[in-house]
Fold:
Amino acid sequence: MTKNFKKFLLLLILLVNASCQIQAMTSNNYADPDPRYATLDPHEFLYRKEREWLKGFDDSPSRPSERVRFSISPFIQFADRGRDINNNQEYLGDLNGRWNMIAMLFGATPEDMSLPTTLQTAKDNLFGYNIPVVQDPGLYVDPNKQFGFFAVPLQYKKFGGRFEFDLRLFKDFGVLVQTGYACICQRQQDLCKKYDICGGVTCNGGTCKNVMLKSSEIEEITKADTSCGTTADATACSHLGYTLPVNLTNCLDDAAQVPASTSIPSGSTIKPIKKADAQYYLMNQLYTIAQEIGVSLCDFEKNSIEDVRFNLYWRHAIEVNRGKEQDWPNFLFIPFAELCYTAAVGDIKDQCLMFSLPFGNNGHDAIGGKVGFLIDFTQTMEIGIDAGATHFFEKTFTNYRMPTSIYQTGIFPFATTAKVCPGLNCFGTFKLAAYHFLGNLSTYWQYAIVSHNNDKICLCKPDSAFIPSVLEKRSCWNSQMLNIAFNYDISPNLTLGAYCQAPLWQKRAYASTTVMLGLNATF
Structure:
């Protein structure tokens, strides 16, 4: 290994480590945190021809320039798993916790509201009549998240087209406009095609009692794609245009209860909840309860325009080592900066649809910025690093689902009007690229990280029963991904491309995979 090559590897390692810092123009969307609008290298900046001229690969008598570029890119994005706050693999509907039905009976009742009939009946029969607030509610929460819980396996798919328009204004300045139109589908995963979460071969049958699986074991068996047996629960395995989450109480013995008998102190007056009672008053009443609290468990499918981004950028190439007598590599050092404003014109999440998702920032306009640099070696590759942040403006939501107990997860009995200010997005990328490394074929490989900080949620009408801090603590997320693209120039002005965004690591975010094709025209 040559001395120069060792130095290059050391430089590469240092750059990789430096890249793990705070990328601009990200979204307030844990299903699609870093949307891309073209297959081209994100650091093109209408600068390729000029860069090649500076490196001596273009024989034009004068400095060439690119004035405008337009990209059309059909794409598809899909996921059926994500990671929770502890980095455990979970179903998409369980990233913030499985649905705790018993906890819907906890906490105080907001002013001018009352528990719906079915929930009040359950509270009276499970805890006793005329009890305003359940005492010691933590004792009634199964630590294994099975008794009284629903798991929500979902399949997410987003597809459509994205568009990018790049215009060079003057000298080193340009403007970039990005948007898209998409369809989002999110529906219950077909339980009849896979093992259930209990580990048996039936969707909700009795064969899975007393089976508890680790996340890694669940991950392995759900890859098997084995059909359920004939004893599968007919209700759980029928779709009928609705979604029915998996009743995990079915995974337990008939004698199961909360608190467990071993957890009740001697002489205590605590009244345990039996499995049969939980099934009758809560688990079997899911759709009735959902209707009474004003939410729908139907599959979600909708078309909408995506948010529109307006980017103003600056970049400037500096020649390094050009004409030096010693054996130093010639390269271009290109610092750049970018400012972005996002108009949140995409449809927002419908608070009445449990499986709804937003088409962008969920109605929050945003501003962001990033800075970075490229090192474009004349004879080999490009190295690119950028870092930045995105700030989202507050928005008021009506009918905003909010917990009244710290133990409520997934589904909440009450809603209110709240003002939400999303947390700051911090991001960074590290890129390796090769232009025309094989004929007219170019490629880039980019690592990206997006980190979303806690939201700030305020009640528009103060009410001590609501606990917005619970949602604030669950609002942070993190996603790391690998972006890979290949682009082929079929003419001096036209490029065909293919792009893939693969998930690497997430926290409270979808492990989404994106595949995109692109037609790019530059003049």
User: Anything to note?
Assistant: The longest helix spans residues 3-19.
